[in-house]
Amino acid sequence: MNRYPIHSPLGALFATALTAAAMPAAAAEGTATPVELNPVTITGTAAPSLTVPGTDDARRLIERTPGGVELVPDTAWKDTASGTLKDILDFTPGVFVQPKWGEDSRLSIRGSGLSRNFHMRGIQLYQDGVPVNSADGSTDFQELDPTAFRYTEVYKGANALRYGANTLGGAINFVTPTGYDADLAQGRLDLGSFGFRRGQVSSGGNNGVVDAFATASWLRQDGYRDHSGGHSVRASGNVGWRINPSLETRFYMGYADIQQDIPGSVTKTAALTDPKTAAAANLTRDYQRNIDSWRVANKTTLQLDTATLELGGYAVNKHLIHPIFQYLDYTYHDFGAYGRIVDEREIAGHGNRLTAGLTISGGWVDNTQSTNNAGNKGGLLSASSDRSVNYAAYVENAYDLRPGLALIGGLQFLHATRKRNDRFDNATDTSGENDYTFVNPKVGLLWQAAPDWQVFGNLSQSGEAPTFGELNFTNAALSDTEAQTATTLEIGTRGKVRDLTWDLAVYRAHLRKEFQYFDLGGGNYSVTNADKTIHQGIEAGIGWAFARNLLESGDKGDSLSLDAAYTYSDFKFDDDATWGDNDLPGAPKHFIRAALTYHHPLGFHAGPNIEWVPEAYFVDNANSVATKSYVLFGFRAGYEVSKDVSMFVDLRNLANTKYIASSSVAATATDSSALFEPGTGRSVFVGLRAAW
After folding, report:
1. Interior angle at CA 99, CA 97 and CA 101, nearest 5
2. pLDDT digits over 600-618, tens only?
3. For domain 11-691, which architecture applies?
């Protein structure tokens, strides 16, 4: 039964109404024209937002980074079912994102968060620059709606300094359209295997000084596996007011209501022989993850003579009902504010860009854990209030040693507090408090070797405080969990030459105190600090239009293109007292995605694609149990009926291969360990999109 009615938003109507409300204030200032009805212009083009760069501008900004970054436009995933973040990030080298069940996935960048078997840790997620993570760093990224975004920014590792991010994995920012670049009305309908159906609508518009955009989606799926169905309603929007040509403020709103059954991890044999089966305990106890969340935010941008000032703030309220081994009932309250200034000027005849920022974030979680009686709350077992506060200050300066060659130095200061107050009256006191302080330097070079390609390198340090998932103040080993730090050396290049685009980075990170599973004694295994570990790898991506005018000649002839992403990941312990030089579990050494596509000028495109994991990877620190290698074949086709109407078909796992998509990890494992998430079998998805 559908409990979630959807009402189509009318962004242009919102914009008109808000502008009308703003007119008296403008008139009071004595302006000749109270409201500018024509589009504001910047450098001769129809104005984008001051607070939200368009896709091309955002790409130019992100490529000022002397390290691994990516910008993924919505054109890369709009012709897919877009059921999970995998569809957005699948062709981004260095990013490992694999489905678990429903919209849940294992997400890791450069080996971040490999020991986290639930939710996510090690990457800071943002929507329109507003944190999605809770204040302690953990997150549920199911709140993100893949149909809502114009583009996605990926900052790997310490390259995420722009947001003050400090984790090994870096940051990902999902950016929604504004009223300047959105259709007045747009809708899509997607249908697919295993009961997948989704509807989405959006609307946007502007009248010069005020713009608005809103989107909403409804999704329901039965799921490939038993007990893996779910449904969700998500909505987001923003309203911007161009107060004058140099000043803009923008308000954001987001809402998510997600209901998801959890089939759980199973043994390797079950995953490869009977992949639809759910774990027995998940059925008996009716495992679920249900989220209800609201977020509001503001971002204001002021352009000065040589500088741009950004100020913003946000507040988030989330309720998690999570029947698993116990019945978890968590209420999250998160808040934050930030300021950032970017000053660009000449110093002694050399270009210089100075960036400085301050971010304050915090929040608390009121949590209770009770007995799980077949998905219903039973007797109370524990209760606490978990509080986190984070202060991050950062500065980065890019100085042009000569035209096209910039020396970039940066420094970040971070102080984090984790405090738990026991609210349950029993003999065990779970209260405790830890503080963590980091000073993270960075130095790099960015060489613009030619107008369309760059060479970069950097040496950086990052630090990551534990989440409450790594803290247990009743256990001496866990209450003293230290922060994880990393020193990373990276070199690479990106660019375009004729019909070839590329992105290549090579990195080596030396970690201290990485969060990993260890034996705490008496058969009690939990996450605490390793001594030394190494993460190193190669991230390579290409886009190559290697054949043109095959059947149709001319300036708009047909073409054949190859898109491919390769990630090599070598993560290992470094002379560890327990695990020696064993591989770290949880991610494949080699991960390959490739697609061959034929494009016809009439708007038709089609072609095969593959996903290939050529070598099994371990799931435990002891390196005793591994997954299985696999290759998946798919096919996609799309047709633009007109500039406003398009359709697609997306065929996946054509050979119906039984494979392991992702896994949990453990200190030691056996063949009977339930650590494996089976991949989805053969499936087909179709979609129709129309805009006006």
Report:
1. 150
2. 999 999 999 999 999 999 9
3. Beta Barrel (2.40)
What whole-number distance in Å separates Cα of residue 194 and Cα of residue 99?
A: 15
Q: How far apart are CA 542 and CA 684, in angstroms?
A: 27
> How far is the C-alpha of 10 from the C-alpha of 366, rounded, in Å?
37
Name the β-bridge partners of 529: 515
Q: Positive or negative CA dihedral for 650, 656, 657, 661?
A: positive
* Residue 475 φ/ψ, nearest 5 degrees: -120, 120
Task: Give per-residue pLDDT as tens, 47-85.
Answer: 489 999 999 999 999 999 999 999 999 988 888 876 678
Phi, psi dihedrals of residue 3, rounded to the nearest 5°: -95, 5
Is residue 198 packed enough to be buried (19+ CB in 10 Å), middle (13-18) or exposed (0-12)? buried
Cα atoms in the 13 Å half-sphere on the side-chain side of 10: 5
Compute the radius of gyration of the chain from its Cα atoms.
25
Say how many C-beta atoms besides its own lie within 10 A of residue 407's C-beta.
Answer: 15
Which residue from 249, 231, 232 is spatially nearest to 298, judged by alpha carbons? 249
- CA dist., res. 150 & res. 238, Å (int): 13
Instruction: Give the DSSP H or E segment for 685.
Output: strand 683-691
State the CB neighbour count (10 A cutoff) for residue 594.
16
Residue-wise pLDDT tens digits, 140-184: 878 889 899 999 999 998 888 777 777 889 999 999 999 999 999
**Sign, CA torsion 48/54/59/64:** positive
Q: Are 18 and 239 in contact (CB under 8 A)?
A: yes
Given this model, what pLDDT does residue 643 score? 87
User: How far is it, in rounded angstroms, from Cα 255 to Cα 241?
Assistant: 22
- Distances from the Cα of 581 to the Cα of 136, 260, 576, angstroms: 31, 39, 7
For residues 552 and 524, the answer to whether their CB atoms sit within 8 Å is: no
Cα(442)–Cα(161) distance, rounded to whole angstroms?
9
**Torsion angle in degrees (nearest 10) through CA of 128, 130, 132, 133:** 140
Give the length of the chain: 692
| 208 contacts 202 by C-beta, under 8 angstroms | no
Round to the nearest angstrom and report the end-to-end CA distance of the chain: 31
Residue 279's nearest CA partner among 689, 681, 677 is: 677
Q: How far are the Cα atoms of 6, 330, 498 from residue 292, in angstroms, in the given order?
A: 16, 11, 48
Cα dihedral 665, 671, 677, 681, rounded to 10, equals: 150
Widest CA span in the chain: 81
Work out the average pLDDT over 296-312: 95
3 state DSSP class of 97: strand
Give the whole-angstrom CA distance, residue 232 versus residue 257.
6
Reading the block at residue 565, the tokens are 């992403």
